[in-house]
Design goal:
The complex is a heterodimer. Chain A is an alpha/beta fold. Chain A is built from 13 helices and 16 strands. In chain A, the strands form five sheets. In chain A, strands 2-10-9-8-7-3-4 form a seven-stranded mixed beta sheet, with helices on both faces. Chain A has a three-stranded antiparallel beta sheet with strand order 13-16-15, covered by helices on one side. In chain A, strands 1-14 form a two-stranded parallel sheet. Chain B is of the alpha/beta class. Chain B has 16 helices and eleven strands. Classes of the chains: A alpha/beta, B alpha/beta.
């Protein structure tokens, strides 16, 4: 069996003797004897490191790693600068706990402070927390921030990511709040429908930029409509798109949230990712989770600490703003290191290249008989019809090493990023044409 | 130390992306960002040196002893890190077709089957991202159970006053009212008070066993029975599972649902605060309420609690860990965690007052109540003094039922020499503090900064770099 126990049998015996016991089993004398598992749990015997190495390699080998991906839908493959992985793998960052002891945790606290600053810059908001679990839980926590005694209804765009909608729905059900969907039209939120859904019951309006279907929302107008009815405006933003489209701050958002995965995190079969949350100064004390602030030590040296903890569960217990006590610190460090390496120009380039490639892809798909289903402006995702059998086409692409668009109602949801070269896109189109000509038409 | 933004030089870049090989696309003017984007402009070496400097100003398990109570700071095996970085896991899109992700689904299935055996549960979800998120999911299961039965008056969650703060905060997020019950002096549930507290409005009880004083509650079977007899359900907070894994099972103690902190008990790293993973297990009768995920959509499910399937790469690490330890290694780790705690407790009791006598589980609590009263030496002072010796202090001021508490959890991955050396430091720090109480108020002295002014941080919050504003 494998083991990470440094104590030898002799040392264990010595320690047992020191505490006046004869066996390890005596340590459990408070446990009812009928509960003790005599032979341990019914799982396989332990393995050496080499055996585990082989077993995990075999498991990973059963998955298909696509070299060419035209699928996003909430998880995006972007170029990750080589240095990012090295920073994220530094042993101390990996093995440290939450930085409670500021004197020996300045490195982690400072990295979170830098992350908070970058999120404020990206979103155009005043204040950011240290991150939450992912974009979906950030959305649900933001909705919870807006609730008050009179206003208990959240209006959520049907053009948001389905997992986000479902997560908000679950949190609202649990807390006893109401959630209603704002219909979608032409791939984005139907703002006239929003207008008619608003009432003095509405606590907040949630819009995602770009929408799940890739469409660019008129977020400023949505925010204006929400505010006119006295509701808060929560705007989710793709952090890469934020480099070139109007930031939540410019659109009048009270809270900005989003999925931080595109900022240097690999696809990872869905996690761990990063939920970012930023707000106007007025909402600072309603933010959930950790927040790092700058102060000084007794000698006036710059110091960072976890602050505004009176919001949190370990102080406030049942009166806390949320139960959350962790943050995705290592993922927020990845995001900060990614943004530091990319810089403003690199990030803008990743954004505008993703957008350009997506528009090139859309034009080529249209030429191949796959026109877009919506007319809205889009960033790096869009929906096309699929005049051939979807499954057959996607299987054919898969045989050629390509992960095609995601099947959705009405067609396929495609995505392109700076990683998709013109050559890859041209090859995709050629394969689609070959498939269609072979009689793949439905 | 300077911030990234202070090291920025206008015009400096890393060369990362090629020229765009397709025509540019221009957004209409109203869809363009106008706000400046103040990100740092740095060379790759600037970035490299910055983070190396930050690493030197941090402390991880790799740097030294980390007996942070309730956090289980055990060694994080590097083979688990290696496995999680395999392209066959890390490069997989969450929405790939089923037949292209068989390795991922098998990893989740295997991890689930092993952890169910270890906990005595029938089903499990990996969607929750952390312990508190697991608690939230678990209490949602309880809420759903009563709701489906039409038992709508069950709105109260009983929580002992020794519990983690996340327990009551979670209950409130689920629309429940919290009933706090006072614990006995050993942190154990007072059976009489529990019997008084339960009734027709009881939704459930949230409990950790061993409790936050590190004591195994010997009445556990009676406790779960009292709640069940009243029609409530029982929730096991897995924060302290490391003491008992493979020795006794929460399922056999009478718990209906549980969460596990994979980042504590199953050795996945804490990452400076996350990501963790909070697997939730339950008995058969609650399985239909588990969160929806791929290919599973029970009409009675509570719904999703997170996008996709949870912190998958954390589960991969935990799986590698369980495969390594296996049937013998899992209980052996627990027993040694308990042995180490009892040994260190014995050594420290030479000077320190232990909050509760008798055999402890994986952790124990020191109280500096008398020292604070008589010598003005607090738990905080001792903790800060330890920093100068390269030891991460124990958890301070928790559990709340012990005054001037220091909660010590050595874990099983520390050897006797480490425990002996740490005991010497603890004892000498104590002696020095008693002899020169004022000196310890100024500790630490050898760390990158001294004690920060937390009051100023909270009164005049500076939460971001101001860019000369």
């Amino acid at each position: 069996m494998g083991s990470y126990l440094p104590s030898t049998g002799a040392q264990q015996a010595e320690m047992l003797k020191a505490i006046g016991l004869d066996s390890l089993e005596e340590l459990y004398q408070a446990a009812p004897t009928e509960l003790i598992l005599e032979d341990g749990p019914a799982i396989p015997k332990g393995k050496s490191e080499l055996e585990v190495h082989r077993a995990m390699e075999a498991l990973a080998g059963k998955n298909t790693v696509f070299t060419t991906i035209f699928r996003g839908a909430g998880a995006y493959r972007h170029y990750i600068p080589a240095i990012v992985g090295h920073i994220a793998a530094k042993e101390t960052f990996v093995t440290a706990y939450t930085p409670y002891q500021a004197e020996i945790s300045q490195g982690i606290l400072q990295s979170i402070f830098e992350y908070q600053t970058m999120i404020c810059e990206l979103t155009g908001m005043d204040v950011s927390n240290a991150s939450v679990y992912d974009g979906a839980t950030a959305a649900a926590e933001a909705v919870a921030m807006c609730r008050d005694r009179k206003r208990k209804k959240a209006l959520v765009s049907a053009a948001a990511h389905p997992d986000v909608i479902e997560t908000i729905r679950t949190y609202c059900w649990a807390s006893g709040d109401e959630m209603e969907l704002i219909p979608c039209r032409d791939g984005v939120t139907d703002l006239s429908a929003l207008q008619s859904l608003l009432s003095d019951q509405a606590a907040c309006v949630y819009i995602q930029q770009p929408s799940y279907f890739g469409g660019l929302e008129d977020a400023a107008q949505a925010g204006g409509i929400a505010h006119a009815a006295g509701a808060k405006f929560i705007m989710a933003i793709n952090p890469i798109a934020a480099a070139i489209v109007p930031s939540p701050g410019e659109c009048g958002a009270d809270i900005a949230v989003g999925e931080g995965q595109p900022l240097g995190m690999p696809l990872s079969f869905g996690g761990p990712y990063l939920g970012f949350m930023a707000a106007t100064e007025a909402l600072t004390r309603r933010l959930p989770g950790r927040i790092v602030g700058e102060t000084a030590d007794g000698q006036g040296r710059r110091a960072f600490v976890l602050t505004l903890q009176a919001r949190e569960q370990h102080i406030r217990r049942e009166k806390a703003s949320s139960n959350i006590c962790s943050n995705q610190a290592l993922c927020s460090m990845v995001a900060a290191a990614y943004l530091a390496a990319m810089g403003p120009n690199g990030l803008r380039s990743a954004a505008s290249q993703s957008m350009a490639k997506a528009h090139y892809l859309a034009a080529r798909l249209e030429g191949a008989g796959f026109p877009r289903t919506n007319q809205c402006e889009f960033f790096h995702e869009f929906v096309t019809t699929c005049p051939v059998d979807k499954t057959g086409l996607l299987d054919y692409l898969e045989q050629n090493g390509i992960l095609g668009g995601l099947p959705v109602d009405g067609g396929l949801l495609w995505c392109a990023t700076e990683l998709n070269s013109k050559e890859e896109i041209d090859r995709l189109i050629q394969l689609i044409q070959t498939y269609s000509e072979k009689g793949g038409a439905a | 130390m300077e911030l990234l933004f202070e090291k920025s030089v206008a015009g400096r870049t890393c060369s990362l992306l090629p020229e765009c090989d397709v025509p540019d696309y221009a957004l209409p003017p109203e869809q363009r960002r106008e706000r400046a984007l103040n990100l740092p402009q740095l060379s790759e070496q600037d970035v490299s040196r910055h983070y190396s400097a930050l690493e030197r100003r941090a402390h991880g398990v790799n740097n030294g002893f980390y007996p942070l109570g309730s956090c289980t700071m055990k060694y994080n095996p590097r083979i688990d890190e290696w496995a999680a970085a395999l392209p066959g896991f890390a490069q997989i899109h969450p929405l790939q077709p089923e037949h292209t992700v068989r390795g991922c689904t098998e990893a989740l299935r295997l991890a689930g089957s092993y952890l169910r055996e270890i906990t005595g549960m029938d089903d499990m979800t990996f969607q929750p991202a952390a312990g508190a998120h697991g608690e939230l999911t678990g209490v949602m299961l309880i809420k759903r159970y009563h709701e489906v039965r039409g038992d709508r008056k069950r709105t109260k969650i009983i929580v002992p006053d020794s519990a983690h703060g996340t327990n009551p905060a979670t209950a409130v997020m689920c629309g429940m009212t919290v009933v706090n019950i006072a614990s006995g002096p050993d942190g154990c549930v007072d059976l009489e008070k529990l019997r008084e507290a339960v009734g027709e409005d009881t939704a459930g009880l949230m409990l950790t066993n061993p409790n936050t004083l590190g004591i195994f509650d010997r009445n556990i079977l009676e406790i779960t029975k009292v709640v069940h007899d009243a029609g409530g359900l029982t929730y096991y907070d897995g924060a302290n599972l490391n003491a008992i894994m493979g020795v006794v099972r929460p399922g056999d103690m009478g718990f209906d649902c549980i969460h596990l902190n994979l980042h504590k008990t199953f050795a996945t790293p804490h990452g400076g605060g996350g990501p963790g993973a909070g697997a939730v297990g339950c008995k058969d009768f609650l399985a239909a309420y588990l969160p929806n995920s791929r290919g599973q959509a029970s009409p009675e499910s509570i719904g999703r609690v997170k996008a996709f399937y949870g912190n998958f790469l954390v589960v991969v690490r935990a799986l590698a860990y369980v495969l390594t330890l296996g049937r013998e290694g899992i209980p052996d780790a627990a027993k040694n965690a308990v042995l180490n705690a009892n040994y260190l407790k014995k050594r420290l009791s030479e000077r320190y007052q232990i909050a509760h006598d008798g055999i402890c589980m994986h952790e124990f609590v020191i109280t500096l109540k008398e020292e604070a009263k008589q010598r003005h030496v607090t738990a905080m002072d001792i903790a800060k003094a330890l920093l100068d010796y390269g030891i991460h202090p124990p958890t301070m001021y928790f559990p709340l039922i012990v005054e001037e508490a220091l909660m010590v959890e050595p874990t099983e991955t520390e050897g006797k020499e480490t425990l002996d050396a740490a005991a010497e430091v603890f004892l000498s720090v104590y002696q020095a503090a008693m002899e020169h109480p004022h000196r310890v108020h100024d500790a630490p002295q050898r760390t990158p900064i001294g004690r920060p002014d937390e009051v100023r941080a909270a009164r005049k919050p500076v939460l971001r770099y101001p860019f000369g504003a």
